[in-house]
Amino acid sequence: MKTIGLDIGTTSVCGVVTDCETGAIIESKTIANDSALKSENAFERLQNPSRILEICRDIYREFTKKHGDAEAVGFTGQMHGILYLDENGEPLSPLFTWQDERGNQPYGDVSYAKTLSEVTGYKMATGYGLTTHFYNMKNGLVPCGAAKICTIHDFAAMKFAGLKAPLTHSSDAASLGLFDLEKGEFDKTALKAAGIHEYILPETEIGRASCRE
Q1: Which are the contacts of 142, defined by CB distance < 8 A and separation ≥ 6?
Q2: Strands 185-186 and 148-150
Q3: Residue 211 has pLDDT above 80, yes or no
Q4: What is the model's pLDDT at position 21?
Q5: Is 93 helix (H, G, I), strand (E, B) or coil?
Q6: CB-CB contact of 148 with 85 (8 Å)
């Protein structure tokens, strides 16, 4: 029995095949993440999510061709960054990576990140998914038809599973910001203060488990 792990980094995408029983590494592979997109704005750090998904699928196909079908596929990746999805789970935007600096741009007398921190009571920084979303909201940059935001590895896992909506781990949800770790959910009061609608947020594994109880 074998498992495949895929890690989507900012500069590379890595894959590993492991033995389920012993944990031994059977094969590993690293491919450069060549998905970076050019921008007119020096503060932007953007990547092409479709290209990243293609790299993941190439690694997966190579592994399964050599080692047979895997019992499971696991995903990890760069935290904080987001992309926008339509109602069918198709990307409507580039990936705004954790290195994106739009949150540090001036907003009144301070920055977008500082403003978001002040109105919510959460320490927010540029590159955090909801800081990026806050900037995009204030500048009319949220794509028309956007149904959800998610991390890049949530997007890849969703596509591999044949789903139309992302499911995120609570640790990734926390990396977006405005997430109450004790309650295991996004802070509704903080979201309201920031003018962020709950519908845009991905479902968490904790929220799904609660619905089934």
Answers
A1: 84, 133, 136
A2: unpaired
A3: no
A4: 87
A5: coil
A6: yes
54, 62 contact by CB (below 8 A): no
Confidence of residue 213 (pLDDT cuts 50, 70, 90): very low
Task: Please give the single-letter amino acid code of residue 121.
Answer: G
Mean pLDDT of the region 34-61:
97
Asked if pLDDT for residue 116 goes beyond 60, the answer is yes
List, in order, residues 6 or more apart from 162 with CB less than 8 Å away: none
**What is the C-alpha separation between 79 and 153, in angstroms, rounded?**
9
Over residues 23-30, the mean pLDDT reads 94
**Encoding tokens for residue 106?**
């001036």
User: Cα(156)–Cα(159) distance, rounded to whole angstroms?
Assistant: 5
Pairwise CA distance, residues 1 & 187, whole Å: 41
d(CA 121, CA 178): 9
- Greatest alpha-carbon pair distance for the chain in Å reads 58
Q: Return the structure tokens found at 188.
A: 């509704």
The H-or-E segment that residue 132 falls in is helix 129-138
| Residue 85 pLDDT greater than 90, yes or no | yes
**Is the separation of the CB atoms in 121 and 138 below 8 Å?**
no
